[in-house]
């Protein structure tokens, strides 16, 4: 190696400390008892041991002084030392110098390629790592399973800060097949995990079925993928066929079940079964279990879990405490949620968001907004869900100016681009305030095409203020989007026309509804009068095949009301006008 290469290392290291040579002899090393002799007559062995020492240490950057000494002394390192220096620079994050060491190798071995590819991937340089793979193939060197497992791991762990090729996992898999790389257990697991995390569960299942011996890690990844896709039966099938179950696979089932009110009870049953088999629950288990209690609104079971946790050191774990705050808030016990919240020694953005959302959903939007600003004073940055909760609170409190200020601050102060949910919330806020003109401007100025939630919010605002013309536009957009939006849009527009006395329009709309033959005849729906709480005095209604001729089976002691709200509707529009 020529003297003068790596100038930054030479200049910075040799000027940093007059005692830099002390780093040349690592602790617990008996290379030479004569320090001066070691410096004047170093060997490949002593250099190799010294470099390896710093690779294994917590301060690898000190090992760069050895590299500087090699350059200054004119020592010509062999391949083994060069690769160790490459590893050393990768560990310190100096990709520039690691690449230089790689380029100066007399022969680029598979291990050298893998080290550098791994270093690039670790630092988010995915494109450069793929370029190295292509360079490796072009040079006649064949990538192995470890090469591809690193790439697949990068594809599975991609974040918003790293731009990945759209089909990175599939590209890697295709190249594996082309190069006839024989997958081992590690590579199969990486493939399954990559496909699951990219939403390609069927591809993951195909790879999973190819495995001769299916490990629990693959089973867990596939179960998670199926649960995220709502394919509960498929997840149960994989779980039942998993022979050697561990706590992680049980946790995957409990977490998956806890996402839906229809399956949350099964999550509780799995927890009981897990304990019967002497599996000790961990933090993830309790977080998922509390989530199931939250979905089912069974606060009594949740309190039993909390009581059990209070006897352990895990009680104040930030994940568990945040889950408890969320559970109490969703079960309507906002005071209990606040007690847990105040007791927590540290809080993250999810804890704050759960508490803010809890206040908003439990009829205290002012308190929610106060906490939103306290959160920022505590130097905790809100995320997109926090902003959604704050905007919702503004809507319920009728704080138009405050809502607009919060909405505008998302991208301006926190670089968070509003999603469809945020736009729908703002349209609803503007509509409640009677500013349909501003709501229309917001919809028309959206960077992306509005979805059904945005148009449904605008239609609801038009109905509220009796604006037939704008309601017709919003309903027409909903008709065009998807069939699921049509029933609510038809009924909301019909009610708007009826309220304005446009009976001819109502008749025309009913004829359209007949033509569409809306498929609601088989659905059992629960409706509630607008002034009653959702948990009391329910009206069980079976809607007829034609929505304009509802067959109502009403069991209620209250006087007849003119409007019923569909409890299953996300948009909250009334679906029957009596």
Automatic annotation (TrEMBL):
InterPro entries: E_motif (IPR046848), PPR_At4g14850-like_plant (IPR046960), PPR_rpt (IPR002885), TPR-like_helical_dom_sf (IPR011990). One of its GO terms (biological process) is RNA modification. Keywords: Repeat. This is Pentatricopeptide repeat-containing protein. GO terms for molecular function: RNA binding. It comes from the Eukaryota. PPR repeats lie at residues 109-143, 184-218, 246-281, 317-347, 348-382. Pfam families: E_motif (PF20431), PPR (PF01535), PPR_2 (PF13041).
């Amino acid at each position: 190696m020529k003297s003068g290469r790596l100038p930054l290392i030479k200049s910075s290291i040799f000027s940093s400390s007059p005692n830099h040579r002390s780093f040349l002899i690592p602790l617990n090393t008996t290379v030479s008892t004569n320090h001066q002799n070691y410096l004047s007559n170093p060997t490949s062995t002593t250099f190799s041991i010294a470099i390896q020492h710093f690779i294994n240490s917590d301060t690898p950057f000190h090992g760069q002084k050895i590299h500087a000494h090699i350059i200054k002394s004119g020592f010509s390192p062999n391949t083994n030392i060069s690769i160790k220096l490459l590893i050393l620079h990768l560990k310190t994050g100096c990709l520039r110098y690691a690449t230089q060491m790689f380029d100066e190798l007399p022969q680029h071995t598979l291990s050298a390629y893998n080290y550098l590819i791994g270093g690039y991937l670790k630092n988010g340089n995915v494109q450069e790592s793929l370029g190295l793979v292509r360079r490796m193939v072009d040079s006649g060197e064949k990538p192995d399973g470890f090469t591809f497992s690193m790439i697949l791991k990068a594809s599975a762990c991609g974040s918003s800060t790293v731009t990945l090729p759209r089909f990175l996992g599939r590209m890697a898999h295709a190249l594996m097949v082309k190069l006839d790389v024989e997958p081992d257990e590690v590579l199969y697991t990486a493939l399954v995990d990559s496909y699951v995390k990219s939403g390609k569960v069927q591809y993951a299942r195909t790879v999973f079925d190819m495995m001769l011996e299916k490990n629990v890690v693959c089973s867990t990844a596939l179960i998670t993928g199926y649960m995220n896709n709502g394919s509960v039966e498929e997840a149960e099938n994989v779980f039942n066929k998993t022979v050697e179950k561990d706590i992680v696979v049980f946790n995957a089932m409990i977490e998956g079940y806890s996402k839906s009110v229809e399956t949350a009870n099964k999550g509780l049953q799995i927890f009981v079964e897990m304990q019967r088999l002497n599996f000790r629950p961990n933090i993830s288990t309790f977080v998922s279990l509390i989530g199931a209690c939250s979905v089912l609104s069974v606060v009594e079971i949740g309190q039993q879990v909390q009581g059990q946790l209070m006897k352990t050191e895990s009680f104040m774990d930030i994940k568990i405490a945040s889950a408890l705050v969320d559970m109490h808030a969703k079960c309507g016990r906002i005071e209990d949620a606040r007690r847990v919240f105040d007791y927590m020694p540290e809080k993250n953005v999810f804890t704050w968001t759960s508490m803010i959302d809890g206040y908003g959903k439990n009829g205290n939007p002012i308190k929610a907004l106060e906490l939103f600003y306290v959160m920022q004073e505590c130097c905790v940055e809100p995320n997109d869900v926090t902003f959604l909760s704050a905007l919702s609170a503004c809507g319920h409190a009728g704080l138009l100016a405050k809502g607009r200020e919060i909405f505008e601050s998302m991208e301006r102060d926190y670089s968070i681009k509003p999603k469809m949910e945020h736009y729908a919330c703002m349209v609803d806020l503007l509509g409640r305030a009677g500013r349909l003109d501003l709501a229309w401007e917001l919809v028309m100025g959206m960077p992306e095409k509005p979805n059904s939630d945005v148009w449904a919010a605008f239609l609801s605002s038009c109905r509220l203020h009796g604006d037939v013309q704008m309601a017709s536009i919003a309903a027409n957009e909903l008709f065009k989007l998807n069939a699921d939006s049509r029933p609510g849009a038809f009924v909301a527009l019909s009610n708007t026309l009826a309220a304005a006395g446009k009976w001819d329009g109502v008749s025309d709309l009913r004829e359209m509804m007949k033509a569409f033959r809306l498929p609601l005849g088989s659905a059992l729906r629960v409706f509630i009068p607008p002034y009653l709480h959702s948990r009391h005095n329910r009206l069980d209604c079976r809607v007829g095949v034609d929505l304009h001729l509802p067959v109502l089976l009403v069991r209620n002691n209250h006087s007849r009301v003119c409007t019923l709200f569909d409890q299953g509707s996300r948009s909250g529009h009334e679906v029957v006008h009596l």
